Amino acid sequence: MLSNSKRTQINKAARKAVFDTEKLHQIIDESLIAHIAIEEESGPVVIPMLAWRVEDHVYIHGARNSRLIKSLQAGTATCLTFTLFDGWVLARSAFHHSAHYRCAVVFGCFHVIDDEQEKDRLLNHFIEQIAPGRTQQVRLSNHKELTATQLLAIPLNEASVKISAFGVNDDEADLDRPVWAGVLPYRTVVGPLIPVPEHAGYPAPDYSSAYGERWHQPASSSE
């Protein structure tokens, strides 16, 4: 079960609240992009960052001189959001048009991963997550590259999940209105791979195991 704190309590459309930790993990793993809030002298800033999960922590990385990294490595409280858009809900009235989505909000503080071996392992984990088997083929990061990279982690101790998937919710008075109503789904398709020109002859690797149904399906040739 997810944490139940004042910050994670969902008041608006509470029926969409989900308390299953597995759903939280699925949203983070599929999104891989976190919008992260920091406070600067000029005001609040929200910055999108690549982010990945290993067990019960989320990790981000960046250059040591990054304003986001410098702010978060000091242990400043922050908020991360992950959002997956699944489609438009088209109702019989303009007011009841809405969307299907899955979103997660994580509260807490980041801490620095200093150990170089652990940093290397976690960065490679991210590569394996998006392209299984690739760390066995590419040149791995050297000491200079690892030193230039700051790796931060935040625990999933305080988080909320909200999922909207309830379909059309028209007023009863509008049900006989002669207009199409339903859901316009959105779907992310991964692939096919696009090689660099000089390696066009290399066989394309198969990364479909990382994406399941989102992996592109080649068009079947007609007879």
What does this protein structure show overall?
It contains 4 helices and 11 strands. It has a single domain (14-189), classed as Electron Transport, Fmn-binding Protein, Chain A (Pnp Oxidase, Chain A, Roll), CATH 2.30.110.10. With 223 residues, it is an alpha+beta fold. It has helices at residues 21-31, 67-72, 116-130, 143-148; strands at residues 17-18, 33-40, 43-50, 52-54, 57-63, 77-90, 98-109, 111-112, 149-155, 158-164, 182-185. The strands form 2 sheets. Strands 1, 2, 3, 6, 7, 10 and 11 form a 7-stranded antiparallel sheet that branches.
Estimate the helix proportion, in percent.
10-25%
What percent strand? 25-35%
User: Count of DSSP helices?
Assistant: 4
Span between N and C termini? 52 Å
- The CATH class label is Mainly Beta
InterPro entries: Pyridox_Oxase-rel, Split_barrel_FMN-bd
Pfam families: Pyridox_ox_2 (PF12900)
Protein name: Flavin-nucleotide-binding protein
Briefly say what this structure is.
InterPro entries: Pyridox_Oxase-rel, Split_barrel_FMN-bd. By secondary structure, the protein is an alpha+beta fold.
Q: What labels would you give this structure?
A:
single chain, 223 residues, alpha+beta, Pnp Oxidase, Chain A, 7-stranded antiparallel sheet, 4 helices, 33% strand, Pyridox_Oxase-rel, Flavin-nucleotide-binding protein
